[in-house]
Amino acid sequence: MLTDRPPRNAALLAQFLESDRLAVIELPQQDRLSRLAQSIDLAMKDGTKAVVQQACAEFVEATSEFYQVRKPGIRVLAARPLRVRDGGRATELFGDYAPEEMLIRVWMRTAVRKQVTSFGTFLSTLCHELIHHLDYVQFGFGDSPHTRGFYERTAALYHHARGTAAKRLFWLRVPGGRWRIDWPRTNRSA
Ligand SMILES: [Zn+2]
Predict the structure, then answer these.
(1) pLDDT reported for residue 10
(2) Strand segments (E) across 58-133
(3) What is the helix (H) or strand (E) element at residue 181, kind and residue range?
(4) What share of the chain is helix, strand, coil (3-state, %, to 5)?
């Protein structure tokens, strides 16, 4: 995980720094999200794409309800489209988020090797896209940069949903004002 380069534009930079500092996120007391995440896991093992889509929609709805935001659309795709038109989207390897349409897309297979995305990666991608959504609709960020705070919040939501202990993330500074996770140190401290 690598953070984005800090923007030059002063207004965007202010939001970038705010996002970077925002390392904690409120989490539900109940285990509703982890039960819904388990349904996604089961659906990925035995179900059709429609069943996975339904399980994801329930997870997205419960998350939006908890954060009291409008729920985004969610589309589960079998394979990543070969030609992904960016169009202002936040694009990752296994998913994307289109702020204009408030639409999350996640895919169950990678385009090139047709490998099935593991449940952990799939859920982590879904949480990542939900954090993009919250950046826009809850915090009103004009952009949703990948900052250390962004990744901390994503990890917190993911570990809550997965029912695993959250790790403290350690970061290494890399050129260009960016940071990447120091995995050996992060894993040692777990
Ligand atoms: Zn992203």
Answers:
(1) 93
(2) 73-79, 90-91, 95-98, 103-109
(3) strand 178-181
(4) 45, 15, 40
Instruction: State in Å: Cα 45 to ligand 1 middle.
Output: 26
Q: Is pLDDT larger for residue 116 or for residue 143?
A: 143
Ligand 1 midpoint to CA 78 (Å): 20
Q: Report CA(132)–ligand 1 centroid distance (Å).
A: 7
Quote the ligand 1 centre to 11 CA distance (angstroms): 20
Phi, psi dihedral angles at 173 (to 5 degrees): -75, 135
pTM exceeding the 0.85 threshold for the entire prediction: yes
pLDDT at residue 160, as a whole number:
97
**Measuring CA to CA, how many Å separate 62 from each of 59, 127, 169?**
5, 12, 26
Token output for 91: 């694009």
For residues 34 and 161, is the Cβ–Cβ distance under 8 A? yes
Element of type H or E holding 174: strand 171-174
